[in-house]
Amino acid sequence: MRVEELIIDGFKSYSTRTVVSHWDPQFNAITGLNGSGKSNILDAICFVLGIASMATVRASNLQDLIYKRGQAGVTKASVTIVFNNSQKDRSPIGFENIAKISVTRQITLGGASKYLINGHRAQQQAVLQLFQSVQLNINNPNFLIMQGKITKVLNMKPKEILALIEEASGTRMFEDRRQKAEKTMLKKDVKLLEIKSILEEEVEPKLRRFEHDKDIYLQFQNIQMQMERLEQIVAAHDYTISNNELVKNTEIIDSNKKKKAAVKEALKEIENEIIDINTRLNQVTIKRDDILKKNEKTKKEYTEKLTALNSTSTRLKTSIQIQKKNLEKENKSCVDLKKGIKNKKVLFEEKSKALVSEASKEKILEADVRSLKEELENKKELLSSLQASGSSPTGYINQINRLKRELNDHNMNLKKDELKINSNNIEIENNNVQIKEFDNTVKLYEQTLKELENEQNEIQMQLRMENFDENKYKQLKENETNMQRESKKLSTQIESWKRKLYNLDFQYDHKNVNFEPQFIKGVAATLFDINQENMDKAQALQVCAGGKLFNIVVENDSVAADLLENGNLKKRVTIIPLNKISARTIKHDVIVKAKDISGYPHKVDLALNLIEFDNDVAKAMQFIFGSALICESADIAKKITFHPEIRTKSITLEGDVYDPEGTLSGGSRNNNSNILEQTQIFNKLLKEYKDLQNDLENCQRELKVLDISRSKFLPLINKNKMILNKTQQIKDEMKSSYFSVLTSRNIELRNDNDHIQTNIDKLESLIKITRGSIKSTEDDLRNFEQNKDGSLDKLKNEIKAITKTLSTKEQEYDAVSELVEELNIDKERLIEEISADQEELESLKLSIKETNSSISISEKNLLESQKEIDLLKQQSLDDNMENKIIEDEYAKLTDLVNTKMNEKNKMPALIKELQETIDECYESNRSLDEKLDQLVNEFEWLETDKPRVSKLLKDSEDIVLEQSKANLKKLKESHNSLKNRVNPNVITMIESVLKREKALRTMISTIEADKQKIQETIETLNQHKIDALMKTYEKVTVDFGDIFSELLPNSHAKLVILPNSNITDGLEVKVKLGSIWKESLVELSGGQRSLVALSLILALLQFKPAPMYILDEVDAALDLSHTQNIGHLIKTKFKGSQFIVVSLKEGMFTNANRVFRTRFQDGTSTVNIMT
Known about the structure:
Protein name: Structural maintenance of chromosomes protein
CATH class of one domain: Alpha Beta
Number of strands: 25
Strand content: 5-15%
Largest sheet: 6 strands, antiparallel
Number of helices: 23
GO cellular component, one term: nucleolus
Subcellular location: Nucleus
Family: Belongs to the SMC family. SMC2 subfamily.
Pfam family, one: SMC_hinge
Radius of gyration: 74 Å
Structural class: alpha+beta
CATH superfamily of one domain: P-loop containing nucleotide triphosphate hydrolases
């Protein structure tokens, strides 16, 4: 950071705004006459840098800095310095990204002073920190060397020289901080003693005195808390117990009132029911007598018919068994015959193939034997003739003649065959001419066949499009018949069960009512199913449902009202409208709890969970089965029914009912105890019948669709058959026509030509062989004429060889002939056997067919007989069932009358018992109300703060109330005895003293910790100070010697540590002139001493250079040559910093890069640039 522009306005001798710009970044000199304002420029720079010492700027106060102290109309002084901040590494902290920094300081006559940084107002401390961060500390300015500083350095003592080194190294700041830390430590020691004295003399005695009072107070407070807590708990328990008893009594009253009303209502209903039952009983008695008379008459008829039918059935079964055994034997024989025929045919084929092969071998061997015989005969004849004629070749000549005759025969036969082929070819050509005449007729036939074929293809396509399956149609027809038969059978059974379960037979007048039939859901017993695995619980479920089992379930109350008013009902019924019933079921968590309590979760369940039903009747099922648990044993039922968390009606598998109110019902059951099981059978029949009807409807619907397809399919089938017949007729006509005869004749002629051609090929081969034999014989004749004896021997050898070969061939031929004969015999035998087996097989098949037919007839007769038996049994069963039903109904009604009478007799006593319980509960409630009022008056929160009561009860679940009341009494006695001895303010007082003690001890700890930290800091600072001083000393002493040598050639200077001391005791200057070290600076001249001082100052400046240095006439005591050396030294050695030098000597400013000249004119100073 360096000065780029200086603006002075109203400061000292500069009355008007003066701008000094174009400062050189390295070396600037200011010159001018005395009093022209040179030093005022330096004062202006120091003024902006925040100088506090007015003596440095040659003023007594700030008003002296204003032009003529404000008496010339100028009332304020302002100086602005514009710094170039392009060197980022040397920028002030926080200004690294600002290229130029403008700092302004203004003062007014009143003494007000303000600073501006880049046009914005700033605090003086911010400005000082800005400059201090770049080593421009104006209040300890090592960068500012004024006129008197040279003299001061000359007179400095070792400690003062050390202070210069400390200032340069920055350790001066360490020393200041160390001194401040030591002063702080002294203050803390005093404070520490003061705090300890307070603790020992004042705080600790008070604490000891208060501790005793505290123990008594805490004991009192603890007793009071226990007493209050126990009072609240006892009150909460008394209140809750009384409240629960009150609620329980109220519930008992309400329950007994309802029970009383219900018992009265039930008494009325029972009386009405007894009247109805007696009326029904009289009707049933009359009906039972009629049925018994009728059944006695028909029973004998059923028995006689059943005996006859059973006899017929037994006979038919025996006959069918015998026929099936015979059929089984015949089928086995048939299978064996088929297998034998198949094996014989395979053997026949093998024999035929072997015969063909062996016959072929026989022909070849026969031809070979015949050929060898002829050849042997010819050779023998030749030998005989040759031997008889002596040396005459007659034999050869005869043989040649014979061969020529054979050749002639072959040629003649060849010509005959060729003539035959020619004749056949001519006939074929003639036939072709005649066939050609039939072309139109043939084309007409072929066209007709083509048209028929196209028509047939079209019909086949239509048949495929219809996609009619005749087999499927037949199967559906058969299924329809079977289902209709089964439906009729199920309908008969259902009617029979309806008569037996007359309570399930609900009928009404459909015509008079104003609702759809589906709004009547049906009798409740028919609306649910019981799985087979739950059938053992049927008795319990029946008891659970009770009379509701025969209630009628309807859609809503409107339907119920319409049904009662317009339905013309034949008997009294109870109706359950789904929209009005209150379907209460036991909660799931209660069921889970009951399962847990029982110890056998699988043996306890809600009755509703044991049945299956549709969603539309769910409310009715919940109404009937939702309020009772089914248990597998009486022990489980007792355990869960009377448990305080359950208290729900339970029913055992035997039908015993356990009620939480204390009643138990059960014991022996009447004859209708299995009514629910019978109902399930009836429901199953109904379901089967309904499913069968649905299947039948689906089958009939599918048949209806197929009937439509069949109506289109049958005409197409008939038409297709007609086309096939017509096509066969045309083919038969073509086959029997003259055209067909000629065509067949041509085929025969061509086949004949093929055979003749084969014969011609053989003849040509024989002709070729015969010609070869002739040539060979002629060669033999010539050989004989040349060598008669050799030819005879050769001929004899040939005869021997042929004889031997002939013998072998004859043996082979005989063996093959014998084998062929055997094969022919075997073949004929197999043909006869196969024929006989086939005749026997046909006979067996006919017998099997007859047997099957007989079995079918017998089975049909047996089926009809069995149907008649079943019908008779069913009729007998129906009669018995009707008899049993009426007997069951009679017994049921008798038992019901007795049961109802017993119930009626018990009811007055029950009403009286209920009223007594109600009166007792009223009396108990009056006492409880008084107790509750007393508790609430004493503890209002019992009614207003229910959560508090609940919490108290929960926290004290295990207490014994009576014991708690005794404990409460003892606590009250202890409380009263301590009440007068307690100081109620002791806790506050002791807490106050404890807080003060804690605060004092905290202060002691803090002070001691601070002292330790300060001591450690001082030690650290001392070490850092020594290290920094040594480093600075070593660098400065070297630079000091170099600069002095340059200013005063052949001389040297250095700084040395005092003898027998360390660096902190001080430094002194030693100078060598030539080769002699001077003992003291007194031995030097005034100029030499000034050079020593100036060299030391410049060496200090070179250590950690500041961005700017200000020198005010430091060359005043030097001659011109030394001044010039100093200027040269600044220019060459201090290139990193900006120098602003005030000098009157030409030797100084001639080395400067920029020279400013000041003038004092008309009472004010001005500045001009010289170079």
